[in-house]
């Protein structure tokens, strides 16, 4: 078997299936073990106990799929043409959803394409044994992608590419064929620290180290408990994930738009009014998020996130009324966040009222006696 020709064919077939880049690497992740163990020991994974439970497995892909000697790493762009970052983030009455989650869930789409790629390789080489992965097992997708030449590790810990930025998904195909491997690319973050500076909660505690416990994506997606109160004002109107570290990254000037229709924004999730989302009952939430990655956080966490955003919004009697109306029908966790939001809304309303009174008195003092 001409493995060099097969590797070239695999990259061509991958491109035909919609992957913007395909790389091949060995599966030696021993260099990642110390970093991973240190990170876990510091507790930065928060409540994601599954990361610690499968820590050893994460650096040994051949234990996930026995016989594996190579990983085919792929990436797929997801940035929509009408991302509308500024429009949503600058309006505190709208809910901001991370751009990766505006369309359909990427897991099934990419896994299906990877399975098709595996089947195509098997047609050319019947000895192939493969297994596709898209966030579906304890596998270190970013280190594999970096070893396969798909980009370098940015200081925000995401994979960056010189010509495509970081707006892409990653997936892997573990295989048993000793294909020639690709080489990592040069790291090009240099002295830039924009992502560290811009992070609303300062979750990037040092270059290449993310404290998930502070990360808005973790707080609004992975955390199933109460969001720590000191962090709530910093979340702003971000109700599912956060893109700030990517938005500020200079390399994302070169980001490529997706041509996948499934990643196009759903109208009901693109710059939605917070009050409109708050009005959804659980049945509506499940229907409106069908086929979306948002659904997996569940209705309670959805309401929790919305309550925080509403507490961060400018004082509004409609928001206060909506929060009060729903409070008695929520779980204790959601009630806690509603109470926090109400306190902020009411205190701001009192401030506004006092300012109006002072203004009226000042005007009255300046009017003629017979006015």
Automatic annotation (TrEMBL):
Q: Where is the active site?
A: 135 (proton donor)
Q: Which SUPFAM superfamilies match?
A: alpha-helical ferredoxin
GO MF:
4 iron, 4 sulfur cluster binding; cobalamin binding; epoxyqueuosine reductase activity; metal ion binding
* Start and end residues of each 4Fe-4S ferredoxin-type domain: 180-209
One GO cellular component assignment for this chain's record is: cytoplasm
List the InterPro entries hit by this protein, alphabetically.
4Fe4S_Fe-S-bd, 4Fe4S_Fe_S_CS, QueG, QueG_DUF1730
Q: In which pathway does it act?
A: tRNA modification; tRNA-queuosine biosynthesis
The enzyme class is oxidoreductase
* Free-text cofactor note: Binds 2 [4Fe-4S] clusters per monomer.
GO-annotated biological processes = tRNA queuosine(34) biosynthetic process
Look up the EC number in the record and give it.
Answer: 1.17.99.6
Q: Name the UniProt key words of this record, in alphabetical order.
A: 4Fe-4S, Cobalamin, Cobalt, Cytoplasm, Iron, Iron-sulfur, Metal-binding, Oxidoreductase, Queuosine biosynthesis, tRNA processing
- Pfam families membership: Fer4_16, QueG_DUF1730
Chain sites annotated for binding [4Fe-4S] cluster 2 = 199, 215, 242, 245
Q: What does this protein do?
A: Catalyzes the conversion of epoxyqueuosine (oQ) to queuosine (Q), which is a hypermodified base found in the wobble positions of tRNA(Asp), tRNA(Asn), tRNA(His) and tRNA(Tyr).
The name this protein carries in UniProt is Epoxyqueuosine reductase
Organism field: Pseudidiomarina donghaiensis
Gene encoding this chain? queG
């Amino acid at each position: 078997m001409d493995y060099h020709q097969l590797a070239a064919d695999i990259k061509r077939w991958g491109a035909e299936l919609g992957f913007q880049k395909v790389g091949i690497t060995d599966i030696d992740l021993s260099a990642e073990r110390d970093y991973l163990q240190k990170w876990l020991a510091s507790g930065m994974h928060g409540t994601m106990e599954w990361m610690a439970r499968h820590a050893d497995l994460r650096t040994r892909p051949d234990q996930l799929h026995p016989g594996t000697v190579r990983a085919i790493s792929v990436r797929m762009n997801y940035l929509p043409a009408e991302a509308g970052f500024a429009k949503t983030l600058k309006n505190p009455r709208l809910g901001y959803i991370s751009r990766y989650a505006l369309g359909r869930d990427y897991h099934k789409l990419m896994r299906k394409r990877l399975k098709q790629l595996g089947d195509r390789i098997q047609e050319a080489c019947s000895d192939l044994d493969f297994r596709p992965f898209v966030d579906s097992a304890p596998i270190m997708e970013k280190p594999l992608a970096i070893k396969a030449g798909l980009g370098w590790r940015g200081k925000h810990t995401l994979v960056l590419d010189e010509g495509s930025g970081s707006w892409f998904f990653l997936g892997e195909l573990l295989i048993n064929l000793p294909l020639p491997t690709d080489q990592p690319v040069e790291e090009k973050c240099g002295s830039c620290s924009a992502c560290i500076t811009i992070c609303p909660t300062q979750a990037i505690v040092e270059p290449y180290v993310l404290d998930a416990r502070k990360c808005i994506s973790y707080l609004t997606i992975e955390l199933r408990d109460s969001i720590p109160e000191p962090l709530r004002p910093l979340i702003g109107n971000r109700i599912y994930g956060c893109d700030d570290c990517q938005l500020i990254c200079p390399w994302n000037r070169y980001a490529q738009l997706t041509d996948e229709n499934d990643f196009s924004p759903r109208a009901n999730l693109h710059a939605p009014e917070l009050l409109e989302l708050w009005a959804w009952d659980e049945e509506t939430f499940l229907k409106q998020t069908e086929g979306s990655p948002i659904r997996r956080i569940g209705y309670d966490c959805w309401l929790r996130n919305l309550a925080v955003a509403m507490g961060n919004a400018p004082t509004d009697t409609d928001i206060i009324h909506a929060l009060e109306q729903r409070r008695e029908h929520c779980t204790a966790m959601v009630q806690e966040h509603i109470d926090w939001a109400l306190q902020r809304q009411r205190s701001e309303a009192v401030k506004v009222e006092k300012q109006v009174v002072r203004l009226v008195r000042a005007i009255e003092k300046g009017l003629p006696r017979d006015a």
